[in-house]
């Protein structure tokens, strides 16, 4: 039995089947990861937008090692030296006059947003959140209800009350979904799980106007599109608007679990002791990791790189994939890139993996690429060559074998 087979057998016996994992990975460095049998892959998935500065970036590793030997956890009933520094680093880059709450995941950050909205609306008897169809907000009961996709809700009814849905990029649909009890609109600047769909500028600006007009909160889920992925620190910054609050997780800790609720001045002072809490949120270790990620994005100019490499990647894909009739569209923002096919994308994902490129199909027909922000031009070009070769091999199969 190889080392890889041993991992797979043990996993299958003892770990719940919530995922159907593929390759056993054991080591990573920069844009590359290695499997248990020593094979190297170009990682254009980044743990689903998590390892934003690549695998085991020396600055992140050093920061985690140093803090792990000094103080890992204390509880939020004490101050710790790194939590306020991280909050400051996020606030100076986003909502001036705001404050942060730290948690451990994206779903938890969105729960925080929803609780914040309900508490704000309580005085006026409003609690309903309008979210978008095709969105993704997490797997807890409230966030899977906010998620506008039946497939994540099925089997978990009854769902919590207080959620309504509108069509993404359709302002009239949002207006129609708003009722007397509505308190907030929740939106992703780029729908990630939904198939890498950027919000239209008129839609985001229209939402901001609509929320102002009706005294509603505009909440952005930045869990996937935040932390530099779109070429700005936060996805909403591409639209010249400010949300009232937004959520972060995935890329924030560069692989160390941490999430955040970032609230602007309207909501910053709302949570008082007893309203909301989490044991692990904002430990010295997690905050040190997130600060190291922010420092690295800043010192290595990764926002600019994400924008430039994203444009190059999209242009090359558009050009090189033109001959393939099953490729419908190449789209995205920064290093959130999707290739929509006229058929399920999973066979393409498998072909890419065989050729040493990791990426993840989403919403059935979209091949999604989320390379780390440190990706180089040579690596982008290599990935495009692999995608082209994989498409060519799919083309030679009969259509029904591919779909
Ligand atoms: C992944 C994701 C979440 C959920 O984050 P978890 O850390 O898995 O709970 C929420 N919203 C968006 C947009 C995501 O991409």
Describe what this molecule looks like in 3D.
The chain has 403 residues and is an alpha/beta fold. The protein folds into two domains: 3-57 and 301-401, Alpha-Beta Complex (Aspartate Aminotransferase, domain 1); 59-299, Type I PLP-dependent aspartate aminotransferase-like (Major domain) (Aspartate Aminotransferase, domain 2). The chain contains 14 helices and 17 strands. A seven-stranded mixed beta sheet has the order 4-12-11-10-7-5-6, sandwiched between helices. A hairpin with a 4-residue loop joins strand 2 and strand 3 (40-43). The longest helix is centred in the last third of the chain and has 19 residues, at 302-320. The chain is globular. The mean pLDDT is 97. Pyridoxal-5'-phosphate is lined by residues 105-107, 110, 136-138, 188, 192-193, 221, 223-224, 249-250.
Based on the model shown, name its key terms.
alpha/beta, Aspartate Aminotransferase, domain 1, Aspartate Aminotransferase, domain 2, binds pyridoxal-5'-phosphate, globular, 2 domains, 403 residues
pLDDT < 50 runs, ≥5 residues: none
Radius of gyration: 21 Å
**Looking at this structure, what is the CATH superfamily of the largest domain?**
Type I PLP-dependent aspartate aminotransferase-like (Major domain)
Question: Based on helices, strands and strand pairing, what is the structural class?
Answer: alpha/beta
CATH class of the largest domain: Alpha Beta
What kind of assembly state do the chains in view correspond to? Answer: single chain
Bound molecules: pyridoxal-5'-phosphate
Number of helices: 14
Beta-strand portion reads 15-25%
Number of strands: 17
User: What is the name of the CATH architecture of the largest domain?
Assistant: 3-Layer(aba) Sandwich
Number of domains: 2
N-to-C span: 34 Å
């Amino acid at each position: 039995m190889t080392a890889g087979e041993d991992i797979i057998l043990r996993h299958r016996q003892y770990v719940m089947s919530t995922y159907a994992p593929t390759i056993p990975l054991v080591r990573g460095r920069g844009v590359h990861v290695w499997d248990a049998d020593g094979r190297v892959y170009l990682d254009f998935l980044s743990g689903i937008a998590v390892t934003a500065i690549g695998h085991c970036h020396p600055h992140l590793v050093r920061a985690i090692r140093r803090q792990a030997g000094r103080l890992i956890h204390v509880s939020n009933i004490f101050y710790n030296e790194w939590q306020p520094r991280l909050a400051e680093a996020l606030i100076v880059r986003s909502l001036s006059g705001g404050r942060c709450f730290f948690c451990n995941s994206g779903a938890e950050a969105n729960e925080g947003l929803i609780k914040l909205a309900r508490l704000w609306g309580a005085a006026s008897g409003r609690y309903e959140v309008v979210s978008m169809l095709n969105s993704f907000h997490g797997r807890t009961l409230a966030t899977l209800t906010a998620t506008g996709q039946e497939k994540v809700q099925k089997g978990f009814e009854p769902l919590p009350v207080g959620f309504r849905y509108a069509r993404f990029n359709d302002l009239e649909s949002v207006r129609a979904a708003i009722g007397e009890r509505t308190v907030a609109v929740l939106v992703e600047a780029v729908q990630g799980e939904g198939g890498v769909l950027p919000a239209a500028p008129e839609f985001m600006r229209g939402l901001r106007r609509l929320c102002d007009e009706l005294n509603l909160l505009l909440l952005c889920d930045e869990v996937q599109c935040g932390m530099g992925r779109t070429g700005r620190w936060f996805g909403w910054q591409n639209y010249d608007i400010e949300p009232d609050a937004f959520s972060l997780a995935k890329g924030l800790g560069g692989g160390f679990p941490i999430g955040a609720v970032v609230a602007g001045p309207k909501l910053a002072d709302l949570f008082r002791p007893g309203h909301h809490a989490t044991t692990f949120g904002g430990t010295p270790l997690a905050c040190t990791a997130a600060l190291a990620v922010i420092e690295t994005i800043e010192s290595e100019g990764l926002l600019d790189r994400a924008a430039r490499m994203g444009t190059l990647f999209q242009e090359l894909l558009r050009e090189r994939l033109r001959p393939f009739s099953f490729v419908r569209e190449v789209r995205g923002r920064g290093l959130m890139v999707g290739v929509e096919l006229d058929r399920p994308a999973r066979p393409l994902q498998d072909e890419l993996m065989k050729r040493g490129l990791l990426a993840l199909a989403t919403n059935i027909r979209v091949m999604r690429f989320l390379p780390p922000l440190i990706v180089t031009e040579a690596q982008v070009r290599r990935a495009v060559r692999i995608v082209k070769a994989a498409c060519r091999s799919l083309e030679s199969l009969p259509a029904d074998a591919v779909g």
